[in-house]
Amino acid sequence: MLNSRRCAACIYLRRKCPRDCLFAPYFPSSNPQRFANVHKIFGASNTSKMLKQLPVDLRAVAVDCMYFEATSRVRCPVYGCVGIITALVQQITDIQYEIAKTKAEIALHSAQQQQMSENKDSQG
Which CB contacts under 8 angstroms, 24+ apart, belong to 9-15? Predict the structure, then answer.
């Protein structure tokens, strides 16, 4: 790669971007914050080691996951993405409770309707 087309990682690390740069496909210069967050949480060396251990076809997904975790950790240093997961689990629990409650109300109304219908039939 030419110096003017360095990836975000090489720009951030202030180094030349080689043609076979490991970071270039995943950290384009158009999105410098992506690498900055990953670097802040995982470091360049650890990120490089993780990517080298993976098959090429899985690296993009791994970088997306690292970026999500890093961004979550930057936003909330204590809980990171666990805080998001916990909130989503709570929402699921709340919604399941609401669904069960609604089903019970429907069953109650159906039973009342059936009882009213049977009462009308026995009177008529």
Answer: 9/35, 9/39, 9/44, 12/36, 12/39, 13/39, 13/44
* Residue type at 78 in one-letter notation: V
Report d(CA 21, CA 61) in Å as an integer.
Answer: 18
- Within 8 A by CB and 6+ apart from 1, the residues are 7, 17, 18, 19, 21, 24
pLDDT tens, position by position, 48-61: 999 999 999 999 99
Res 121: pLDDT: 77
Rounded distance between C-alpha atoms, residue 39 and residue 48, angstroms: 10
**Computed from CA positions of residues 34, 38, 44, 48, in that sequence, does the dihedral angle turn out positive or negative?**
negative
